[in-house]
Automatic annotation (TrEMBL):
<comment type="function">
    <text>Catalyzes phosphorolysis of the pyrimidine nucleosides uridine, thymidine and 2'-deoxyuridine with the formation of the corresponding pyrimidine base and ribose-1-phosphate.</text>
</comment>
<feature type="domain" description="Pyrimidine nucleoside phosphorylase C-terminal">
    <location>
        <begin position="345"/>
        <end position="419"/>
    </location>
</feature>
<dbReference type="InterPro" id="IPR017459">
    <property type="entry name" value="Glycosyl_Trfase_fam3_N_dom"/>
</dbReference>
<dbReference type="GO" id="GO:0006213">
    <property type="term" value="P:pyrimidine nucleoside metabolic process"/>
</dbReference>
<dbReference type="InterPro" id="IPR000053">
    <property type="entry name" value="Thymidine/pyrmidine_PPase"/>
</dbReference>
<dbReference type="Pfam" id="PF07831">
    <property type="entry name" value="PYNP_C"/>
</dbReference>
<comment type="similarity">
    <text>Belongs to the thymidine/pyrimidine-nucleoside phosphorylase family.</text>
</comment>
<dbReference type="InterPro" id="IPR036566">
    <property type="entry name" value="PYNP-like_C_sf"/>
</dbReference>
<dbReference type="GO" id="GO:0009032">
    <property type="term" value="F:thymidine phosphorylase activity"/>
</dbReference>
<dbReference type="InterPro" id="IPR018090">
    <property type="entry name" value="Pyrmidine_PPas_bac/euk"/>
</dbReference>
<dbReference type="InterPro" id="IPR013102">
    <property type="entry name" value="PYNP_C"/>
</dbReference>
<dbReference type="GO" id="GO:0005829">
    <property type="term" value="C:cytosol"/>
</dbReference>
<protein>
    <recommendedName>
        <fullName>Pyrimidine-nucleoside phosphorylase</fullName>
        <ecNumber>2.4.2.2</ecNumber>
    </recommendedName>
</protein>
<comment type="subunit">
    <text>Homodimer.</text>
</comment>
<dbReference type="GO" id="GO:0006206">
    <property type="term" value="P:pyrimidine nucleobase metabolic process"/>
</dbReference>
<keyword id="KW-0328">Glycosyltransferase</keyword>
<dbReference type="GO" id="GO:0004645">
    <property type="term" value="F:1,4-alpha-oligoglucan phosphorylase activity"/>
</dbReference>
Amino acid sequence: MQTVDIIRKKRNGGELTAEEIQFLIKGFAKDEIPDYQMAAWAMAVFFRGMSDRETADLTLAMVESGEQVDLSQIEGRKVDKHSTGGVGDTTTLIVAPLVASAGVPVAKLSGRGLGHTGGTIDKLESFRGFTTGLSTEQFVKQVNELKIAVAGQTANLTPADKQLYALRDVTATVDSIPLIASSIMSKKIAGGADAIVLDVKTGKGAFMKDEESAVQLAEAMVGIGSRVGRQTVAVISDMNQPLGYAVGNALEVKEAIDTLQGRGPDDLTELSLTLGAHMVVLAGKTDSVTEARGLLEGKLKDGSALAKFKEFVEAQGGDPRAVDQTDLLPTVSRQVEVPAPEDGTIAQLEAEEIGLCAMQLGAGRATKEDRIDHAVGIVLHKKVGDVVSRGEAIATLHVNDESKVKAVQNRLLQAVTITKERIVPPRQIRSIVT
Ligand code: URA
Ligand code: CA
């Protein structure tokens, strides 16, 4: 088999066989196929696309390029949750203990934040002492005992995806639906999940700016899941404005705790219950989403979801007292309000820009090596559709580095649009793809 023939076939719009795809991915992972050939192939895929069958074969080839997490020692159906990346998105901190409190095993591999989006591990490390460095044995044991564990990725999962993603990043071939779908799904499958619930974001702060391409991406991923025997459901959700009010690590932990106490923001609560309900159904705990949702609402009301969160924090070395006394979490030296420049209704709160404002305050990383400040960030007081008066606070900046205040205040105001027209708040859940 010759690499050039495979590139030509795809360039001419042909459908590659499973063997051809395996040859390509294996060769690339072993550095036998050079970057320039792989880049040419990626560009051919960008223009020609891939069939559902090719996309599933590409996913499996990438899964087989590295280790696969064996979760077979965990009792029950393991359902993973994945988000395509949002701003102020603390749903994992809510959904994981929530569904665990309903008896569904949650074995979650999570990452750190980069750029305008945050990461679950960074948020959890707001608890002093919290560790995600669990061995596979500890991870499995904790899920069997508590139904919940969150670990950083230690195993060498999908190295071919890492290599291909780096190449796509510099060859303008990231935004291809089959390449994105296979990249995301390969990591979930290698992580050992039996079933997967995806939160596919759409809007200004999302990877997929328009709803139609978000649905296409969701359909591609659900299609891969069904072809490889891992049932997958996708929730299409709004990411034009940040989720909830808080953006920043400890601030989002507090928001998650509020939500676990049943008094969180409406959008965050709605999304958490929707994602959680689909996880409960896929785990086989209830027959219908409606029934699952009722079960989870009960767990928020009776305190079991919050109690589960506390147990989980303690099991992974964090200070559980901070769950009840959130003033034990990292706090800032100064809070600065951002006043509205005029009367009107909030028409836009651009998620990506607000995420970048939080990053500029120190809540996120511009490069992988940057250290983050868990205490800093932004708390919004208004959301799209809310009325404001001139001088009223739209947001509060939580700051430790005084020198950044002016620039971030100005940047934040640029991200806000105020109008005299009536604005209907966006629907958080756009559709469900099964
Ligand atoms: N996220 C991924 O993991 N892979 C992609 O290709 C795009 C976004
Ligand atoms: Ca939030």
